[in-house]
Amino acid sequence: MPGAALAETVSPRSALAHQLALSASMLLGILLVTDQVLGIPWLYWAGQLAVNGLSLGLVVGMLLSRFGVARPLWAERLLVLLPVLDLLVLAVSRWSVVNTSGFQGFLMAVPMAWLAARYRFQGAALGIAMALGSMGLGFLILPEHDVVEVLSRGLATTVLAGSVALVVAGVVTRLDEQRRRLETVSVALGVVSLVLDEDGAVLEESGRLRGAARGRSIPELLADPVFTENGRVPLPPERNPLARAARGSTLDGEAVWAELDGGRRVALSVSSTALTETRTLVVVQDVTASLAAVLQEEQFLANVSHELKTPSPRSPDTWSCSRTRSTPRRAGIPR
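Below the sequence we write its predicted structure tokens.
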């Protein structure tokens, strides 16, 4: 099994969707099964009970993890074990129905796609190996059946489910490549991109800021209070860029100042756009040097403008001296 270093694509919500889809398909299969095609009833109903029991366990585990009763690590381990357990159950119970279609065998595509999305081609290979291994169980469970029939059922379901898993693994692998390219560009530009849910929680984060803010998380940097573009007025909490982005507001390079330890400040440019109704993309860049230069230039121009509008007064001696210097001497002037 691949290690945890691999990027995880299956979130708890999508894992729940996979498992509930499998349970719904299993329950739908009850309507299609008759006494004539049900070869081993106890094995069939044991498979139904096992799959739906795993679905119930996933729901309970996610609820306990959400309310802090169970540790998130336990829920993460459940997401790894669940598709493997589903495959084991289907690998056995698929032979309880005596027909050539092998409905439960085709359902192996659901946990195989789950493994492929989480572990890419390694997960797809694991699923295909388990599907091929289930054919050996078919010979043991159905010794009275023809070998060709068992092989045809096993290979047909394995080819279909394996094709689905390989397609999913290929798509996710390409998405991984695009994500790595984006992260490399983000690091080179000193940009951090993150995805927020409707509650403002960070779902994904990539990139790294430059300068004094390097290595710090964006929620930590943009925690209240933050200051306006001129760095003087603190923003109210409802005007915080992250809070506005989580509410679905579109930001276009809004600049704010954030305080670091020791009283040092950094300027951050925040842009956001809604990806879906519940997900928002936020892009943050450190613009301390450029914004500080702009503010210094504005302060210099303001000082120059003030001096031009209010010139310093001159004393009478200075005025007399300037008149003396500006009046030409008549002596020595040729007529």
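Residues 195 and 204 are 5 Å apart (CA to CA).
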